[in-house]
């Protein structure tokens, strides 16, 4: 039976480090601030906004939540973003993605100020992540995956790692961060011929697809470390991951639960990035 590796101890450790630093900053009259920018009423955006706000405020970071109507024009959206770019009291900006169709993400990513772009939307930060340049911001969810692996002492260097899913929010950056730490990485996506075979090769298996219980026990090699990034909410509001937890638990050596797994670390990493932005700007 796998050890269940929960997010909370990881989040608590990071929170403790951050709280001390923020206390010092506040004692000198400083105040780190996060601005979130949401368009419309998407459920998973609201869930993230709620979790991120709760976590940030608990740590002592001020949060301004900007909510815009779902039918806002691109022009008006850009105007709101420019305000946050220019506002010297705002250290970090989180834009919830995906944006609605009338707003062109490939344009917006070039408008968000790179020094405030704490979730790696800007190509400047994507480039820095790819190079392993520590002055940039890596995306929060992939960073949370790495924090969990490190906290639980999983050796990344030289490991066979498989990543299922290749979006810019989860799979592709997870693969890049693992590669930068010298794992041997395979990535599967919707056009992969045999995703199960890719999954089975992973000593570390990271899954971020958005299909409930897609990963079965015969997809997982004996003793693998399984990180389930998926967040799927059914009609009754129950949350589940992309891994068939009950079955895979019997085969893996470690496995993250959903809820109480990666998601709870993501919001803490976001707070960490706001503090990093504050320090770089002051
Ligand atoms: N824990 C957390 O903090 C967070 C969790 N999430 C969750 O992670 C999951 C993924 O999110 P996100 O990356 O934004 O989703 P996307 O829909 O943007 O990407 C899904 C990825 O999975 C791939 N895929 C789809 N179907 C299959 C399949 N049958 N076999 C293999 N690959 C497949 C897609 O391939 P292709 O590229 O070819 O289309 C794509 O790369 C969701 O459940 C989301 O809710 C997201 C963000 C944060
Ligand atoms: N630019 C951008 N980056 C994202 O990372 C991003 C996004 N946009 N848009 C929406 C999706 C969805 N997402 C969630 C993260 C945590 C919870 C969540 O429920 N977190 C709980 C814990 C969940 C758990 O226990 O696993 C909490 O923080 O308390 C939900 C959803 C991020 N996303």
Helix and strand topology:
Layout: E1 3-4, H1 8-27, E2 33-39, H2 43-59, E3 62-68, H3 74-86, E4 92-95, H4 105-108, H5 123-131, H6 140-151, E5 160-164, H7 171-180, E6 184-188, H8 195-200, E7 204-207, E8 225-228, E9 232-233, E10 239-240, H9 245-248, E11 254-255, H10 262-281
Parallel strand pairs: 1-11, 2-3, 2-4, 5-6, 5-7, 7-8, 8-11
Antiparallel strand pairs: 9-10
Helix pairs in contact: 1-10, 2-10, 5-7, 6-7, 6-10
The structure holds NADPH dihydro-nicotinamide-adenine-dinucleotide phosphate and 5,10-Methenyltetrahydrofolate (GUE).
Low-confidence stretches: none
Hey, roughly how much beta strand do the residues contain? 15-25%
CATH topology of the largest domain: Rossmann fold
Task: Give the SSE string.
Answer: EHEHEHEHHHEHEHEEEEHEH
Number of helices: 10
Can you give the mean pLDDT?
97
What is the molecular shape?
Answer: globular
Strand line-up in the sheet with most strands: 1-11-8-7-5-6
Residues in helix, %: 40-55%
CATH superfamily of the largest domain: NAD(P)-binding Rossmann-like Domain
Instruction: Tell me the count of domains.
Output: 2
Largest sheet: 6 strands, parallel
CATH architecture of the largest domain: 3-Layer(aba) Sandwich
Indicate the structural class: alpha/beta
Bound small molecules, by name, code or SMILES, are: NADPH dihydro-nicotinamide-adenine-dinucleotide phosphate, 5,10-Methenyltetrahydrofolate
Instruction: Tell me the total number of β-strands.
Output: 11
CATH C-level category of the largest domain = Alpha Beta
Distance between the termini: 48 Å
Gyration radius over CA: 19 Å
What kind of assembly state do the chains in view correspond to?
single chain
């Amino acid at each position: 039976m796998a050890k269940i590796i929960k997010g909370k101890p990881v989040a608590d450790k990071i929170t403790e480090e951050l709280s001390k630093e923020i206390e010092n900053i506040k004692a000198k009259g400083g105040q780190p601030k996060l601005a979130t920018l949401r368009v419309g009423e998407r459920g998973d955006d609201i869930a993230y906004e709620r979790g991120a706000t709760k976590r940030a405020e608990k740590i002592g970071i001020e949060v301004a939540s900007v909510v815009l109507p779902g039918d806002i024009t691109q022009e008006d959206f850009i105007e709101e973003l420019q305000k946050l770019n220019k506002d010297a009291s705002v250290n970090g900006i989180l834009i919830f993605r995906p944006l609605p169709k009338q707003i062109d993400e490939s344009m917006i990513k070039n408008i968000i100020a790179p020094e405030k772009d704490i979730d790696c939307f800007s190509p400047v930060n994507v480039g820095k992540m790819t190079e392993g340049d520590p002055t940039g911001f890596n995306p929060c969810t992939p960073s949370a995956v790495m924090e969990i692996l490190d906290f639980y002492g999983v050796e990344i260097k030289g490991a066979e790692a498989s990543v299922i899913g290749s979006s810019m929010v989860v799979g592709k950056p997870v693969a890049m961060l693992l590669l930068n730490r010298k794992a041997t990485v395979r990535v599967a996506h919707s056009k992969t011929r045999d995703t199960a075979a890719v999954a089975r090769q992973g000593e570390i298996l990271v899954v971020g697809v958005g299909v409930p219980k897609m990963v079965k026990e015969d997809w997982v090699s004996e003793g693998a470390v399984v990180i389930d990034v998926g967040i799927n909410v059914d009609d009754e509001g129950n949350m589940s991951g992309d891994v068939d937890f009950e079955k895979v638990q019997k085969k893996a050596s470690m496995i993250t639960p959903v809820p109480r797994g990666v998601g709870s670390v993501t919001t803490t990493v976001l707070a960490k990035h706001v503090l990093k932005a504050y320090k770089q700007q002051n």
